[in-house]
Amino acid sequence: MYKKTMSAMLAAGLVLSVGVASAQEPVQKPNAQAASAFDNKIIKKISSDNMYNTIAKLSAQPREAGTEGEWIGVQYIKSQFEQLGYETELQPFTFNEVVRGTGSLTVNGATLDPYVFSGSYSAEVTADIVHVGLAKSGEVPDEVRGKIALIERGEITFVEKIQNVLDKGAVGVIMYNNSGTSNRFGQANAGQNIPAVAITRDQGLELVNQLKGGPVEATIKVEGSGFVEKTSYNVIAKMKPHKNKDTNQVVMIGAHHDSVAGGPGANDDASGVSAVLELARVMANMPTDTELRFVTFGAEEKGLLGSYHYAGSLSEEDADRIVAHFQMDMVGARDAGGDHPAGGLIMYTIDGKKNLVTDLGSAAGARTAADTVIPYGQLGRSDHQPFHELGIPAALFIHSPLESTYHTPDDTLDKIDKNKLQEAAEIVGASVYQIARPDTPALEHARVAPGPVDYDFNDRPPGA
Ligand SMILES: [Zn+2]
């Protein structure tokens, strides 16, 4: 496969002229560069001990979005930003948390033990059963009105099936499996106000059989199930540039502070938050010509909800000012990264293409503690996604492949490697400062940037 080198891309005019030595200077040898005095202003101040302590505080309890644990973490992060003198804002947003309750199903007096759909509406209904097959749109008979729909699983989604019978006036859903012996399946959407339960294929076929002999009445009872509205938060800290040197550009440094349910999330992603806070500390009083925005997102683990909310809240004008988004997610795991160089650090972009962030990150890798150019790859699955969708150069910094403790209660502080924290923070810090420092009046005019490096695409699945 053809691999574009950086110099070939530059010759072809394919990349921004960031990090490019001026034409008069000799081309620096790729992949062997020393930290500049500018880099040292940042990287000499970065303390992995500080980051480690932040992780210790945040991972003292799980921080699942919408829980007290998240709120404790959010308060801590906010207080840290404020102590550093940042203009800090909590941005709340709500989301629907699915709850699966309990239920029962009685058919002609016989009791079945159904599986309640996740998010099923809680209600008790008694009505005759109507078999509606796969419940595809346009194929649900009118006679299901006021009745319980018996539906076969398959071909279209659970939610679509429920909606199709709801639209025809059904009052309950019994779905039977299309194979195997399990009844554990099913998911309803918020607003689908109809109780829905799952049964096995054999049970379903038995009901189909019974219906041939005449009406079959059933009672579905679902309790404690549905959707609960919860509130999560983004924490946003801003540092305005020097008034006389304002390029009107914004650089964002992000991580997510929420964890999975029951997981302390030391690496995922207290590690990224610790690097965000440490870079905020290091850059707090540093003159820049670029606005720095440090953000920790909530509800990443629920589907990038916080970052999508944030991106959606930006005015078009504000979004246009953002020139780069650096996302750090899982940057401290001792056991991640396999045998890959730089502890397995890689920069993932959504489209698998290089961009400004990866150009800066790879070059910074060669000048900082990692002492290695960092490869790039293709992956979503973190908060760089909504920024990419806004057309903003964005990348995820992560160690890949992931550690085996990913999303488990064992994602704990003792498995954090300070070296890895240090390297990731240095690379992102040096990259950000490359844009933000005042002697580079705007990106396209950088004159004293270090030379470019060759860096490669690495087709490295993160696993898990
Ligand atoms: Zn995660």
Could you walk me through the main structural features you see in this protein, from its secondary elements to its overall organization?
- The strands form two sheets. The chain has an eight-stranded mixed β-sheet, sandwiched between helices.
- 28% of the residues lie in helices and 22% in strands.
- The protein has two domains: 19-96 and 229-445, Aminopeptidase (3-Layer(aba) Sandwich); 101-224, Glucose Oxidase, domain 1 (3-Layer(bba) Sandwich), CATH 3.50.30.30.
- Strand 6, helix 5 and strand 7 (172-176) form a beta-alpha-beta unit.
- Residues 1-29 have low confidence and may be disordered.
- The longest helix has 19 residues, at 418-436.
- The chain has 464 residues and is of the alpha/beta class.
- Bound molecules: zinc ion.
Number of domains: 2
Question: Based on the structure given, which CATH architecture of the largest domain is correct?
Answer: 3-Layer(aba) Sandwich
Our measurement of the CA-to-CA distance between the termini, rounded to an integer number of angstroms, reads 27 Å
Q: Could you say what the CATH topology of the largest domain is called?
A: Aminopeptidase
Order of secondary-structure elements: HHHHEEEEEEHEEHEEEHEHHEEHEHEH
Proportion in β-strands: 15-25%
Number of helical stretches of at least 4 residues: 12
Question: Which shape, going by the Cα principal axes?
Answer: elongated
Mean pLDDT: 90
- CATH class identity of the largest domain: Alpha Beta
The largest β sheet comes out as: 8 strands, mixed
* CATH H-tier superfamily of the largest domain: Zn peptidases
Multimeric organization: single chain
Helix content estimate? 25-40%
How many E strands?
16
